[in-house]
Sequence to fold (266 residues):
Amino acid sequence: MSDLAGTGLNTTLDTVKFDANGLVPAVVQDAKDGQVLMVAYMNREAWRHTLETGLATYWSTSRNSLWVKGETSGHTQRVHDVFVDCDADAVLLRVEQVGGVACHEGYASCFHRRVEGDAWRVIAPRLETPSAG
Amino acid sequence: MSDLAGTGLNTTLDTVKFDANGLVPAVVQDAKDGQVLMVAYMNREAWRHTLETGLATYWSTSRNSLWVKGETSGHTQRVHDVFVDCDADAVLLRVEQVGGVACHEGYASCFHRRVEGDAWRVIAPRLETPSAG
Fold:
């Protein structure tokens, strides 16, 4: 369990500005090397679950359900630090990415395609076969 | 001018999934040290302007206008690399932050408040007096 577990549940939750759909974007960064791993969305329930358990938890906008990242794949994210931006409408999680693979397509980061000329080019190795994430 | 200037305008723009409001969230990361500086939103016009000029350009959701970051403050962002995530519904810009201050409140990063216990704590020095950004 993270040393964040159980903290920050009241005052901090009231600060965050959830949008009209009750969501706030969360940028997820590897605490070890600073790599940006993914962007997901949190609602109040996901926020609470993240701080209560120390495991990064989002709201899946495709499945419309709480999504404990890595619950099925084992690629959980242990939360080291939670930041909010100046307008309180975006959050940043610094995490330990268990297994080293954040992307359901098997890459370390979901941001593995870069603009090169007029095309996207995959610039990172695929570490695993695609999974349910 | 960035070496990205003028590139990636057609195929890449067609790939990005803009939401119902025509926007996509953009995570902005310092290319030098990996610090996450801010989250902003881009529409098609902002995307084109970013790739045409090499200067990070967003859509200001508060002013409802194109926002060339740093146009008034001088704190422009020279774009080194542009990434898209696996679902193509978020982008990542790696930039050189001119002046070293991304946040209009005078901090290097907009993410300068961290959860500590039941409160937010400012964990970075204010480098400048607040500006219009």
Remarks:
- The mean pLDDT of chain B is 91.
- Chain B touches chain A at residues 4, 7-12, 15, 25, 27, 29, 33-36, 38-39, 51, 81-87, 90, 92, 103-105, 107, 110-120 (CB under 8 Å).
